[in-house]
Design brief:
By secondary structure, the chain is an alpha+beta fold. Helices cover 36% and strands 20% of the residues.
Length: 553
């Protein structure tokens, strides 16, 4: 977890997303930016003595070693060696990466507001962020940026760092670009005035049906609770009786934000989480401080990439039998980090305590010598756990009891009450190829841009109903795929099912292109098995002592 007072420069997070997604789980639950200076002690003197020794060693190497050496590289390797035998989430981040990594939990950044990808030495706009300056002046997904401030960048070797350096900047500064748009022969010139681009952590909230509200939380940033609370009040005003909280792929964030959200949903004085660290400084208990703002049935959706702060919320609601947890076993991160900014602007994320759910569970999965910590999710895939709940090995996990004496397990994430397997059978190799070569996304962008005015005028609700009536979408996709270098698919017995899923995926991506995250989730959730399971639970209940059940008239 990170502390709300951490200083960081704002950067174009969307642009850097491909680089940082692999370590987003590692950021996890963070709680601070500065450690109090420890009192003088034997250990303190020993640290100072060894620091001096290391400084002298570097000086000797720099002055006298026979070959030229890079002291920065040596220092980085030494730090990595010191930390490697600690836990997997204590990490050092070099200065040139620190601002980008720290900014993951910002609620906004100063820039142009696009998500891009480099394809064959060409910068392609994948999406235009709502509320950002690019959206306001008419940049579209699918546009190719050819010139930036008079410099032709197309055809050159590009990397994310150099692109961000060209496009990002302080609010009020300008950047001139020229873009190539499909069906336009000439380049189109734009001047973008950089501004603050909001990056909300509540990506969507709406009523799934007349009784059920849905809130998607993508991270726990500095304003996540405010966004959640406002969404909750809005949905209540719309008549919400049931609530779905979607924490899938949420890698965590600020501990305090997770506690506040749980406080909105639990009775006063319920234990939410407690932490244990070295001494009393990092050992504390967090209780709900007031009566809940919502008292109806709750379903929490999780998967193998729901981690840390997500697990704190989920664990608190599960332990108090306040929600039914639906999905797959969560990541399993039960360690708390404090973020320390060093003098050269680098970062140390130092684990300072362990957290426990109300029943006493530490959900931290095993780590240490001989354990392939980073391969855990792929190991779950290979073992079949993502497809079958019975593959979860609970026999060696410690058992705990919820308020109503249901058995829950510690030592490796949170096991859902209702298991929903990962669905790959309905995809097939053709679907997989189109998805992972981005042909599906490119087709959806072109479809959206070709019908941009009509789609905007008619609105999302009309699109949701009308798109399913379109007859030639799959054939048009196959023709487009051939143009993109994908071989025609061979007939398969599952083609009818695959085509249904392909068309729905295209529908999701078109909605995202035109209406952003809200549009994406409104379409995606129509056929989402976890959302469907939540609606079934609300309708039928689980058992008499299940807090998600409700009386029927």
């Amino acid at each position: 977890m990170t502390h709300d007072s951490t200083n960081s420069k704002n950067v174009d997070i969307k642009a850097w997303l491909p680089l940082i997604v692999g370590v987003s789980i590692g950021i996890g639950v963070l709680v601070g930016s500065h450690l109090r200076a420890p009192d003088p002690s034997t250990n303190r003197l020993m640290v100072d003595k060894n620091a001096t020794k290391f400084e002298r060693l570097l000086n000797y190497v720099d002055q006298y070693y026979v070959d030229s050496v890079d002291i920065n590289v040596l220092t980085q390797e030494a730090i990595d060696h010191v930390l490697k035998d600690l836990d997997p989430h204590t990490v050092y981040v070099p200065a040139d990466e620190a601002d980008i990594m720290a900014s993951r939990l910002d609620d906004g950044f100063e820039g142009v507001g696009i998500e891009f990808r480099v394809i064959e030495d060409t910068l392609k706009v994948l999406s235009v962020m709502p509320g950002g300056p690019s959206k306001k002046i008419g940049i579209r997904a699918g546009d190719k940026i050819i010139v930036v401030n008079g410099d032709t960048i197309a055809g050159k070797e590009l990397d994310n760092a150099s692109i961000v350096k060209k496009l990002r900047g302080k609010k009020g500064t300008k950047v001139d670009i020229e873009i190539k748009r499909k069906k336009k022969e000439e380049l189109i010139a734009f001047t973008i005035t950089r501004d603050v681009v909001p990056t909300p952590s509540v990506e969507a909230h709406y009523m799934i049906d007349e009784e059920t509200g849905y809130i998607k939380i993508s991270k726990f940033a500095t304003k996540t609770y405010d966004e959640f609370h406002n969404a909750l009040l809005f949905l209540k005003s719309e008549g919400m009786e049931n609530l779905v909280i979607d924490l899938r792929n949420n890698g965590g964030g600020f501990l305090g934000q997770a506690v506040k959200i749980a406080d909105d949903l639990l009775p006063k004085d319920d234990l939410i989480v407690y932490t244990e660290g070295k001494g009393n400084e990092f050992t504390e208990k967090e209780f709900s401080k007031r009566n809940p703002d919502f008292e109806g049935p709750i379903a929490v959706l999780v998967n193998e990439r729901s981690a840390s702060a997500s697990e704190i919320v989920t664990g608190a609601l599960q332990d108090h039998d306040r929600a039914v947890v639906i999905g797959r076993r969560t990541y399993g991160k039960g360690l708390v980090q404090r973020q320390i900014r060093l003098k050269d602007n680098s970062l140390l994320r130092l684990t300072i305590s362990r957290y426990f759910t109300p029943s006493g569970r530490s959900i931290q999965k095993p780590y240490g010598e001989g354990i392939s910590y980073g391969d855990d999710i792929s190991n779950r895939y290979e073992s079949g756990e993502l497809f079958n709940k019975d593959s979860i090995k609970t026999d060696k996990m410690p058992q705990f009891k919820t308020d109503k004496n249901r058995i829950v397990y510690g030592g490796g994430g949170i096991i859902p009450d209702n298991f929903i397997p990962l669905d790959t059978a309905s995809m097939g190799i053709y679907y997989y190829t189109l998805e992972h070569t981005d042909v599906l996304r490119d087709f959806a962008i072109e479809y959206a841009n070709d019908r941009y005015i009509d789609l905007m005028e008619n609105g999302l609700d009309h699109f949701i109903k009308d798109f399913d009536r379109q007859k030639n979408v799959i054939q048009d996709l196959e023709d487009f795929a051939v143009l993109m270098g994908i071989n025609k698919r061979k007939p398969n017995i599952n083609d009818a099912t695959i085509n249904i899923n392909l068309k729905h995926r295209i529908k999701e991506l078109i909605a995202q292109t035109i209406w952003g995250d809200e549009g994406y989730y409104k379409v995606a959730n129509l056929k989402d098995p976890m959302v469907n399971e939540a609606q079934k639970v609300f309708d039928e209940g689980l058992a008499e002592d299940d807090t998600t059940s409700k009386s029927k008239s």
